[in-house]
Amino acid sequence: MWGLVAGAAAHLALRVPAALAQDQVKAVPQYAVAVVGDGAALRCGDSTVFYEVATLKAGTVLRADGESGSWLRVTYPAGTRAFVWADQVQPAASGRTVTLTRPSRLQAAHASAGAQGSYFALLDADLPTGTELTVIDSAAGSDGRVLGYMVAPPSQARAFIAKSVVRKATEAEAAALAAGTPTPTPTTPPEAPQGTRPTAPTLTGGAQGLPTPPLPNPAAPTTAITQLGPAGDAVSPQPADSLPGEPTSTPTPTSIPAPTFTPELAPAPAAEVAQRPQATRAGLQELVALFERVRQQPLAEAEIDTALAQFQRAQEQYAAIPGEERTAQRLSALIELLRVRKQIRDELAQRQARTTELASSRRAVQEKIDQLSRQRVYTLIGRLTPSVVYDGSRLPLLYRVQSPEAGPARTLGYLAPSPELDLAGKLGVVVGILGEQRVDQTLGSTIITPRRVDVISLEPVSGLSSDSGAPVPTTPVRP
């Protein structure tokens, strides 16, 4: 039964991160948003608990198609990466592509921890065997062996970004996103140490990464900014601060002002970080990775207590931050799973301790029995109890002799009653029996006809050791 409980807990723990990322994500009609400041974190889940997959610059335009509390689900922008393990693919001779040899959901590439940190499933469903992926880079371990590949993410890949670091895109930005206008190449990530993946690229776009719009000139028309994005239908020009569905007039191209970014509409990432300095120091974005590492440890050796303290501290910090109640609740779910694993570990340890103690007790009892048997003091040693079978009604009256050690009792034989020996007064205690032993074929039991029955103690006795190593009593009882 404990195996089933432990297995169920491990399976639930394995599923938790994906469940958290998908919790109550509401699909919405697609619309474009733009990042309002440099350093915006694109994450693999809808909470700061989940690790970053990219760091975006101001003006990067994304297509949103889902909402979850204070988070938006968005498509992966150009220049980002996914990760696939080497044992799941067959590389092409050119090295430019790899082909899946088995179904895979791929991994969301960690922006800084490389291959070893890229544990989170990228897709909701497996890509089929035979899917070809474009290789961006390979990841090698310290021994030079290829661990996996950084590949271009498929079109169905999704990530999450906080609503507080984006604004509604202008009509010009949305049109550029729909048209797929090219943007400057993402910045090259620094070389990562061996055994890890290179840092995910910092995407460019918007105010710093897009072509600089010309200043308004009464004598010349003003052009709009363009931005790279997946293909889609172009939309009619509309003022940047208007909402979907509001009636607007369509201005001529010469009347469209150059869009300006308005960070004041939403706090920049730096402001978001400033609200939770202690949470940042605790590295909360890595808590799910910590949970995964502890889950993979052998249960008897897992650092569950230390991890619990970290999660509880982080949960308290998030609970005190306005707007982070959902994050605190999700951390509580992980805390509960850790507590279940701790309870299972502790109870298994207690069972093991009891088993060890019982085995030690049995060995001590058996050593004492062997010691007495070698001296031929008693024919049989055991605990004298009444018999519910040989109770004198249908079958003859006999007393049952059970094995004296702790644990499940074994029947060693049956003792014939003797008025001179006061057997009824010795019920429930360990006795040494001297007498004749025989097997009664009619009853199918071992029967002892006693000549002497002594109450004895099986506590260890002092004395010299025999050749076999068993203790020898200093004053053995002789018949």
Features:
five-stranded antiparallel beta sheet, alpha+beta, OB fold (Dihydrolipoamide Acetyltransferase, E2P), disordered C terminus, elongated, 479 residues, 9 helices, single chain
Summarize the structure.
The chain has 479 residues and is an alpha+beta fold.
Provide structural commentary:
With 479 residues, the chain is an alpha+beta fold. Among the domains are: 274-367; 377-455, OB fold (Dihydrolipoamide Acetyltransferase, E2P), CATH 2.40.50. It has helices at 2-22, 114-117, 171-179, 206-209, 269-274, 277-281, 287-296, 304-319, 325-374, and strands at 26-35, 40-43, 52-56, 61-68, 71-75, 82-85, 89-91, 97-100, 107-108, 132-140, 146-151, 158-162, 166-168, 202-203, 380-391, 397-402, 411-415, 430-440, 445-455. Strands 7-8-10-11-6-9 form a 6-stranded antiparallel sheet, with no helix packed on it. α1 (2-22) packs antiparallel against α9 (325-374) and α7 (287-296) runs antiparallel to α8 (304-319). The two termini are 50 Å apart. Mean pLDDT is 72; it is low at 1-23, 182-282 and 461-479.
Chain-wise SSE layout:
Elements: H1 2-22, E1 26-35, E2 40-43, E3 52-56, E4 61-68, E5 71-75, E6 82-85, E7 89-91, E8 97-100, E9 107-108, H2 114-117, E10 132-140, E11 146-151, E12 158-162, E13 166-168, H3 171-179, E14 202-203, H4 206-209, H5 269-274, H6 277-281, H7 287-296, H8 304-319, H9 325-374, E15 380-391, E16 397-402, E17 411-415, E18 430-440, E19 445-455
Parallel strand pairs: 3-14, 17-19
Antiparallel strand pairs: 1-4, 1-13, 2-3, 4-5, 5-12, 6-9, 6-11, 7-8, 8-10, 10-11, 15-16, 15-18, 16-17, 18-19
Helix pairs in contact: 1-9, 7-8, 8-9
